[in-house]
Amino acid sequence: MEAYTERGRSEVADVLEKLGAGVENLGLNTWQLRTLSAVRRCRTAALGGHIDACEDCGAIKISYNSCRNRHCPKCQGKNRDDWIQARMSELLPVPYFHVVFTLPDSINSQCSILNWFMTFCLNRLGQL
Fold first, then answer.
1. Are 89 and 62 in contact (CB under 8 A)?
2. By percentage, how much of the chain surpasses pLDDT 90?
3. Of the candidates 19, 62, 18, which has an alpha carbon nearest to the alpha carbon of residue 43?
4. Alpha-carbon gap, residue 7 to 1, rounded angstroms
5. pLDDT (tens digit, 9 = 90+) per residue, 3-32?
6. Nearest-10 Cα torsion for 66, 67, 71, 76
7. Do residues 37 and 67 lie in contact, with contact meaning Cβ atoms separated by under 8 Å?
8. CB proximity list for 69: less than 8 A, separation 6 or greater
9. Distance CA 43, CA 37 (A)
10. Which residues of 13-51 are buried (b: 16+ CB within 10 A; e: fewer)?
11. The overall pTM is greater than 0.70
């Protein structure tokens, strides 16, 4: 299998194909290995397929079956795009900032017990 598709871009399946049996040496669990195997085999002869023929011109097209795995970028690409579009429509027309901070270990137990209160306090501090 070539490293690039017809579009000139690598796909996850291409990378997995290059790794071959090396995937099994990455320390993944059986569920993760099954998922990667499904993604690698998606829309290939390995999963079977069918032939579509045009009755008018006689053109033939082979279509391979998909893996239908929820982690597969080929199978779930449209669902992902639809989800992103729906979230984009919910955004307000203002700039957004992502802030990450670390809290001291000494207050971890309080954060676990009073999560809502700690979140409230931290949000209030951010407004000062």
1. no
2. 39
3. 62
4. 14
5. 444 556 788 888 888 888 888 888 899 999
6. 20
7. no
8. 35, 38, 39, 42, 75, 76
9. 12
10. bbebbeeeeebeeeeeeeeeeebbbbbbbbbbeeeeeee
11. no
Q: Is the dihedral of CA 71, 73, 74, 76 positive or negative?
A: positive
Query: Coil, helix or strand for 35?
Result: helix
Answer yes or no: are the C-beta atoms of 35 and 28 closer than 8 Å: no
Q: What are the E-state strand segments in the chain?
A: 49-53, 60-64
Of residues 49, 64, 80, 88, the one with CA closest to residue 13: 64
What token pair was written down for 118? 């700690």
| Closest among 11, 1, 4 to 72, alpha carbons compared | 11
Reported as a single tens digit per residue, the pLDDT across 40-51 is: 999 999 999 999
- Residue 76 in 3-state DSSP? helix
* Rounded-to-integer distance, Cα 95 and Cα 118, Å: 25
Which tokens belong to 17?
């194909």
